[in-house]
Amino acid sequence: MSEEKDRIVIPDENGDEHLFDELFKFTVDDTGKSYILVTPAGEEAEDEEVEVFAFRYEDREDEENDIALFPVETDEEWEIIEEMLNTFSEEGEEE
């Protein structure tokens, strides 16, 4: 039995909407910035590589359960995200 994952709809540059499964969210204590990692919906493979997308996000105060996504811009942010993804992947392998 696989656990139910949260899903998020993200529009592309053409306005077409795409469905993604949320891998996890985390906030960096030092900066207060929050990040979300997602994979295209339905792409679950045990041994195969799955494309992972990362965004910085902020909760939208005017709408319930809605977030604003922003591109990850700095190498420092990417290093933090890669470290968290590696930790997440290692934990998943141990289960």
What's the total count of β strands? 5
Q: Provide the number of structural domains.
A: 1
Strand-residue proportion? 35-45%
Classify the oligomer: single chain
Strand order across the largest sheet: 1-2-3-4-5
Q: How helical, in percent, are the residues?
A: 10-25%
Shape: globular
Ordered list of secondary-structure elements with their pairings:
Blueprint: E1 7-11, E2 17-27, E3 34-40, E4 53-59, E5 67-70, H1 75-94
Antiparallel strand pairs: 1-2, 2-3, 3-4, 4-5
Write a structural description:
This protein is of the alpha+beta class and 95 residues long. It has one domain (7-94). It is built from one helix and five strands. It has one helix spanning 75-94, and strands spanning 7-11, 17-27, 34-40, 53-59, 67-70. Strands 1-2-3-4-5 form a five-stranded antiparallel β-sheet, covered by helices on one side. The model has no long low-confidence stretch (mean pLDDT 84).
Key descriptive features of the protein:
95 residues, alpha+beta, 1 helix, 21% helix, globular
Characterize this entry briefly.
The protein is 21% helix and 36% strand. It is α+β, with helices and mostly antiparallel strands.
